[in-house]
Amino acid sequence: MPLLTIHNRQISWTPLLVLGYLFYLLLGAMVFQLLEKQAETHFRDQFQLEKLKFLQNYTCLDRQALEQFVQVLMEAWEKGVNPEGNSTNPSNWDFSNSFFFAGTVVTTIGYGNLSPSTVAGQIFCVFYALFGVPLNLAFLNQLGKGLNAHLITLERWVQKPGRAQVVQTLAVAIFLTTGTLLFLVFPPLVFSYVEGWSYGEGFYFTFITLSTIGFGDYVVGTNPNKHYIPVYRSLTAIWIVFGLAWLALVFNVGADLMEKFLQLKWHKPDLSLAEGATAKLEDEPEQPRIHIPS
Questions:
Q1: Do residues 89 and 126 lie in contact, with contact meaning Cβ atoms separated by under 8 Å?
Q2: Which residues contact residue 13 at a Cβ distance below 8 angstroms, ignoring those fewer than 6 apart?
Q3: Under a CB-based contact definition with an 8 Å cutoff, are residues 245 and 140 in contact?
Q4: Smallest Cα–Cα separation from 245: which of 216, 211, 219?
Q5: Shortest CA distance to 187 belongs to which of 164, 169, 205?
Q6: What is the pLDDT of residues 134-165, one digit of tens each?
Q7: Cβ atoms of 214 and 233 closer than 8 Å
Q8: Cβ–Cβ < 8 Å for 110, 104
Q9: Cα–Cα distance for residue pair 277/148, rounded to 1 Å
Q10: Which of 66, 70, 202, 254 can bridge 188 by disulfide, Cβ–Cβ 3.0-4.6 Å?
Q11: With a threshold of 0.85, does the pTM exceed it?
């Protein structure tokens, strides 16, 4: 376990890591509160104003009837039914959408916009995830090993004497650049075109999805006013799996670099002790060496 040396005393860095972790969470909480709370208040006030305008335009309704209707809309949304459009909207449980949902279950993304509503579906989802999540982890692990093997092959292919560090840096740079283009840069362009999002919204969806955060505020293939090709969400699910493997490997590399940084920082030798030991060795007379013939 890495140790921090302070005044010749070794202290575990784990408490410092815990404090740093908590500090990072507190920092995130303060920044999100600063950025989002005022906007939330604005949207809440605007929604209440829209309800008042609706009641003024439709005097045959009272507030209680409107609140009941809003409740119906909320329940429909929670069941995965989009309140927009009509009953001719595509089903959320056709094969393509079901395939996409199965992918969100085993990858633990869990957007939250769609979930089983029947008891049988909920029970099956539990056992499906129970076996599917470990299977997904094993698959991603093998996929990550394959990507790592390609990195090693690339290093051996271009490796020359005396340039090991340069080659390793080049291989990592190619891996990061290629993955960034395939999984973070180009996909938002596709989603922007198909879904009508801005590029920033597409990039936000891409990263939130591949990092398995999955808020559910942006989900592909859910706009009832758009006509998607049948395999659109299925292809997206396949892209997600490979993107998960790449981003997980990137996160692992980042975690390894952070651990190495901590080990170098905490294991930095005490120079005063090293200098004292060197001086002591210089002061001591050289011991006679005994040669043992073979």
A1: no
A2: 1, 2, 3, 4, 262, 266
A3: yes
A4: 211
A5: 205
A6: 999 888 888 877 777 766 666 566 555 555 66
A7: no
A8: yes
A9: 43
A10: 202
A11: no
